[in-house]
Design a protein that fits this description.
The protein is an alpha+beta fold. It has helices at residues 9-18, 86-92; strands at 25-31, 35-42, 49-59, 75-84.
Length: 107
């Protein structure tokens, strides 16, 4: 908590490529000039997981990652914070101490 999860962009990309696909459905999407807020659902089993992610974006520097957007101005993600039911996520991954209980309906 409070520390970087990955030490570099290459470490992030390597970790993302090593994980299996996870189903995500975007429930809501809001944005300001430099912030994108995404409310999402991951229909995992036995417990679905809901969460919210807040991404701050900055103008992309030409030649450094490309960025996204239409027209001449492109954007890239600078920072992401997320909140979700990590107990349900861990239970779905098979950690018994986080397993679902009888009658649980998800997050």
């Amino acid at each position: 908590l409070g520390h970087l999860t990955f030490s570099s962009k290459s470490a992030f990309l390597a970790a993302q490529g090593a994980q299996p696909n996870v189903p995500f459905e975007i429930l809501n999407l809001w944005n300001t000039c430099n912030t994108v807020i995404i409310r999402w659902l991951s229909a995992q089993t036995p417990l679905p997981v809901q969460g919210i992610s807040v991404a701050t974006v900055v103008p992309a520097i030409k030649g450094q990652g490309g960025g996204f957007g239409t027209g001449e101005k492109k954007w890239q993600i600078e920072n992401v914070v997320a909140e979700f039911n990590s107990g349900a996520w861990l239970g779905n991954l098979g950690y018994p101490e986080c397993g679902s209980t009888s009658g649980a309906k998800g997050s």
